[in-house]
Amino acid sequence: MGLINNIKDAFNKAEFTVAPNKKLKTLSADFKKNFDLTLCFYKGATLADPELTLAALNKKTTKEVKAAADGLKIKGSMKVGDVEKLFDQQFGVTVQVKDKAAKTLVPNGITLGQAARGEY
Length: 120
Known about the structure:
By secondary structure, the protein is α+β, with helices and mostly antiparallel strands. It is built from 5 helices and 3 strands, in the order H-H-E-E-H-H-E-H. The chain has a 3-stranded antiparallel β-sheet with strand order 2-1-3.
């Protein structure tokens, strides 16, 4: 079943787009809808205000947020750590992927699809 799930993950939920004018809570909700996981945005070491947009977050952190960057294309077959790095590289923002309930960090070495199925 693992091989079949991995193939499904490669084609399922093929795109997740990030727009700089969307609020962080909307981006998190969209991510949860697509991947059944929680996406948490950070301002430094603390959680960012979910009412902020990516553009507004730039004014609240010492790290430069690249709010004008192009959207991301994220697939269920991507590893959690790679997704987190992609957000940092594309937007200069720190994110962490957590389980659906937002209680547990998902290990970086597994795919989003595996994480959504609780395979860790």
